[in-house]
Every structure is written in structure tokens, then in C-alpha cells.
Design goal:
Layout (H helix, E strand, L loop, with lengths): L2 E7 L5 H6 L7 H8 L5 E9 L2 E8 L2 H16 L3 H4 L4 E4 L1 H12 L11 H14 L5 H20 L9 H13 L8 E5 L3 H12 L4 E5 L3 H11 L2 E3 L4 H7 L2 E4 L10 H9 L8 E4 L8
Parallel strand pairs: 5-6, 5-8, 6-7, 8-9
Antiparallel strand pairs: 1-3, 1-4, 2-3
Helix pairs in contact: 5-7, 6-7, 8-9, 11-12
Length: about 290
């Protein structure tokens, strides 16, 4: 009985399609419960990040199992199969394990060696285990993948200068404004989740001191702001906050855009004509229209 990996990533699919096929952390248990209902699936795990959506499974038959995983993606994410079939890859047995090891090691990431993916693989493993979807076969594969990912970062140079999507966004902003630091820039973080935390940490290293945080849940915005000496703002202040910022980094888990074109046009209208506004969207699905 084979192990299969079916998925798509930044190399095979446009970001818009990745957004349509993403599974949020809140929806992950529900996704696993649905995955368990397919005929050929004995064990399963879902790995969904900003750059990939993948399903790993131990199945009774290769062809039937692969079709089950494709059907799961279509039915759970409400996306017609013909919209994504050409973007899918399918691996089985040794190739599936090799792919999982490359993912955990950061070799398959958009930013090679980025530091977030190992934690995301661990989270996918833990949630699937908690839901009774991982047993001996996938359990051994994920445990070995986590071991490989850790060794890659300790025994090779890939982890010497750890990078994340969030830190890359901050570095992009620093280069765009042409300075050694962001000390004189007003920065807005939209979303107080893990990506927001990582962006805030990178901003501190980049010298940013004038930072505001907007989040739907005010308590989370307050917690993140207090940790870094930033200013918390309520979600209904988002448009005003965008208008006041030089740099906006958005990373919510909203299934729909939170910053649309009319909002940006109104926000830009309140600014001096020659004052640039840089908006960096690192959310999947996209936060910015």
C-alpha cells in the first residue's frame, strides 16, 4: 500500500490559485475529518502554507488514492478540478518521502532555507496526529522529515542566516526606500498572527520605531503592540492607518481581501502627492485587492 503526496506550490501554480486551495489553521481539523471519509485513505495530513497546499496520505491503492486526494482538494476548497489539475504534482512512496524531506529542510521553499516551514510541517503532523489521522506509516515519514529538517539547519549552511517571508518583506521595504534602516518610516502591520509577529521582529532589527498594528481582534493587536512598543489600532481604523503609513505589511488569515482598491484610493487621497506608499501583501489568500 503506497504513500502519496498530491499538491501544488509556488513553482506550479499562480498565487491566486494557491489562495483558493489554501486550508486555514482553523479549518485544518475539519479538513482532516473530511479527508478521512474517502474510500482509499488510511492515514492523512494536510500541509497548507503561503506557498503550498499539499495532502499526504497512506492509501490502499495508488490510482484510487491519488484520485481521492484530488477530489478532496476540489470538494473541500470548492474549486473545480479542471481549474487546478494541470498545476498538481503527485509523488508516491520514496518520491513522496523525498519531497516531504525537501519541504521540511526548506529546499523546496520560495525563499530557500526559510525558517518557518519546519514549524509548519510539525504543526501539520501534530494536528493530524491529534485527530487520529496519523499512525505508524505517515508518523514515521513525518518524524523522519522533522529530523532531516533540523539536521539541515544545524549541519549545513542553509540555516546560517535564517530567512522568512516576513523578514524578506521587511528587507524589500528597506531596499525600496534606499536607507540603511527604517527608523524614519511609519509602518503598519495588518494581522497579528505568526506572520505579523515575525514581521514585527524583523522591523525591530531594521530599526523601525514608528509601527502600528491593526487586527480584527483588538486583544491580539494590543498584545503584539505591547511586545514591541508599537501602537495598537482597531480594525475600523484600518483605512486611516493605511493613509498614515509609508509601508504596509499585510498578513491576515481572512478568506477575502481586507484592503481593496477604493480603500487605497481614499487613503492615498489623504496624503501629500509626492509621498510614496508601499504595500506588501504576504497573505494567502491575498489581503490586498
Amino acid at each position: 500500500m503506497p504513500v502519496i503526496a498530491v499538491g501544488l506550490n509556488h513553482k506550479t501554480a499562480p498565487i491566486s490559485l494557491l489562495g483558493e486551495l489554501s486550508v486555514s489553521a482553523d479549518d485544518l481539523p475539519k479538513a482532516l475529518h473530511q479527508l478521512a471519509t474517502y474510500e482509499h485513505v488510511l492515514e492523512g495530513a494536510v500541509l497548507s502554507t503561503c506557498n503550498r497546499s499539499e495532502v499526504y496520505a497512506f492509501v490502499t491503492k495508488f490510482h484510487g488514492g491519488a484520485q481521492d486526494l484530488r477530489n478532496f482538494l476540489a470538494e473541500f476548497c470548492h474549486v473545480a478540478p479542471e481549474e487546478f489539475n494541470d498545476h498538481l504534482y503527485t509523488y508516491h512512496d520514496d518520491a513522496a518521502a523525498r519531497h516531504l524531506f525537501r519541504v521540511a529542510a526548506g529546499i523546496d521553499s520560495m525563499i530557500v532555507g526559510e525558517s518557518e516551514i519546519l514549524g509548519q510541517v510539525k504543526h501539520a503532523y501534530q494536528v493530524a496526529g491529534d485527530d487520529g489521522m496519523i499512525h505508524r506509516v505517515l508518523g514515521r515519514a513525518f518524524q523522519q522529515a522533522l529530523k532531516v529538517g533540523k539536521e539541515a539547519r544545524t549541519d549545513t549552511s542553509i540555516g546560517r542566516n535564517p530567512v522568512s517571508v516576513s523578514s524578506a518583506a521587511v528587507e524589500l521595504a528597506r531596499r525600496a526606500f534606499g536607507g540603511d534602516s527604517l527608523r524614519d518610516k511609519r509602518v503598519l502591520i495588518v494581522g497579528a498572527g505568526k506572520m505579523g509577529h515575525l514581521a514585527m521582529r524583523s522591523l525591530a532589527h531594521a530599526g523601525a520605531t514608528d509601527v502600528a498594528v491593526v487586527n480584527r481582534t483588538q486583544e491580539r493587536a494590543l498584545s503584539l503592540a505591547e511586545a514591541y512598543g508599537a501602537t495598537p489600532m482597531s480594525f475600523d481604523q484600518l483605512e486611516r492607518a493605511v493613509g498614515a503609513a509609508d509601508i504596509v505589511i499585510s498578513s491576515t488569515t481572512s478568506p477575502e481581501s481586507v484592503i481593496d482598491r477604493p480603500m487605497i484610493e481614499r487613503a492615498v487621497g489623504t496624503r501629500a502627492r509626492d509621498l510614496p506608499l508601499m504595500i506588501i501583501d504576504i497573505a494567502v489568500p491575498a489581503d490586498v485587492e
